[in-house]
Specification:
This protein has 138 residues and is an all-alpha fold. It contains six helices and no strands. It is elongated and about 55 Å long.
């Protein structure tokens, strides 16, 4: 077994955790600062009625990615959400800090696209469910 093979599962898990933490914490922050987040959204022309969906997407999507459940679907949706967030909240070529956040969001969306294509890996609920299906089919 190569070093790559030995490290693949823990690195898959670490990658999922690292990409999900920002969304879990951000979603939780929106729950605890609901009115402030609603005002921020409104200041960017985003209807505040969408805030519960944003919280569900960030917090729920982050948790699902972390545990590796429905990873391909959730990663695809999270990539789209992250790109929309980049465009609505961070695309401001005259503000270097916002452009850095814009580019970070593009990078995060790229990571989600890798998850979409490659799946969660062996240390995930998706893999556990797949093994369970194989046992029942046999």
């Amino acid at each position: 077994m190569s070093l790559f093979d030995a490290l693949k599962n823990p690195i898959d898990l670490a990658g999922r955790l690292l990409i999900s933490f920002i969304f879990i914490f951000s979603g939780w922050g929106k729950i605890t600062a609901y009115s402030g987040t609603a005002a921020y959204m409104a200041s960017h022309g985003v209807p505040t009625v969408l805030l519960p969906l944003v919280i569900l997407t960030e917090f729920g999507g982050g948790l699902l990615i972390a545990v590796g459940y429905q990873t391909r679907l959730v990663a695809f949706l999270m990539a789209g959400f992250t790109l929309l967030t980049a465009l609505f909240f961070h695309f401001n070529p005259s503000d270097q800090a916002q452009m850095i956040n814009f580019m970070k969001n593009l990078s995060i969306a790229g990571g989600f696209l890798f998850l979409f294509v490659n799946g969660a890996g062996e240390w995930s609920l998706d893999a556990l469910r797949q093994r369970g299906r194989a046992v029942h089919a046999a």
